[in-house]
Amino acid sequence: MTDELSRADNDSPWKEILEAYFPQAMQFFFPQTAALINWQRPHEFLDKEFQQIAREAKLGRRYADKLVKVWLLQGQELWLLIHVEIQAKAEDTFAQRMFSYNLRIFDRFAQAAISLAILCDSDSTWRPNQYSYSYPDSRLHFEFGIVKLLDYQNRWTELEASNNPFATVVMAHLKTKQTSKKLGERKNWKFSLIRRLYELGLLETDIRNLYRFIDWVMILPKGLEAEFWQELKQFEQERTMSYITTGERIGYERGKEEGKQEGEQTLVLRLLQRRVGELPQEVRGQIQTLSVEQLEALGEALLDFTAIEDLLNWLGEHPLA
């Protein structure tokens, strides 16, 4: 479980999928920019450089950021700042933050970067794409590209017809949002989306990568998860395909079978990390004092959490064991 927890604490499914399929992400979400890039030359993720310009992170918010060096068709170096706002709500300072990151890149590294944002929220009216100010003798206007995943709801047929990995990513995201109160329906969609991976005739590596994303975002309560896993196992056996397993899945099954409080705590902490972001040590300590029954109740409740405030409210309503 150690490697699994380390990965869960320091990464997100969006970061993993962006790293695995970055050219496809650009071609899917930002085709005009992608058309400028020479994809025959390798791109480079500038994680250390990004850490130098991202000095703050608000507790409870969830981002996935990538700073990437690519090469233009004409041969020049270009930096791309890709920001995924995973569970966003309307935020007045979002555009300012995008400008600030862009300015810091130029200030620290003397590189002009293209800033792009993928918005995963459910507010159709929130579409920040510029930051500006204007005075008689000084003015600034900064624009950045955005994609709103919510807009793909009306392009479902197009998503189904696409073999770009990010069509599957968007489908999983949308169906997760749409089934927050309909978990039985979520189970059916999760199975359908994973079955689609096989029907597309993808390579085993692609199936595993996309399965991992779907499994990570389309969280199910224990009972439905067990039903889903049996259905998927039967489906794979009928198609005489190899049985998909991951360290995360193995850890889940072990925790469920052993029924130990420690295993339950580990699972709940991992799922909370995925739902609301980094947990303060004090909050982790509170969760570690919960009884098995309380942990199971929290495991059900967290499916509807969108921010750390939801967790704090739940803990306030449930006295510690």
UniProtKB/TrEMBL annotation:
Q: Where is the DUF4351 domain?
A: 257-315
**Species of the source:** Gloeocapsopsis dulcis AAB1 = 1H9
Q: Which Pfam families match?
A: DUF4351
What is the protein named? DUF4351 domain-containing protein
Which PANTHER family does its entry note? SLL1691 PROTEIN
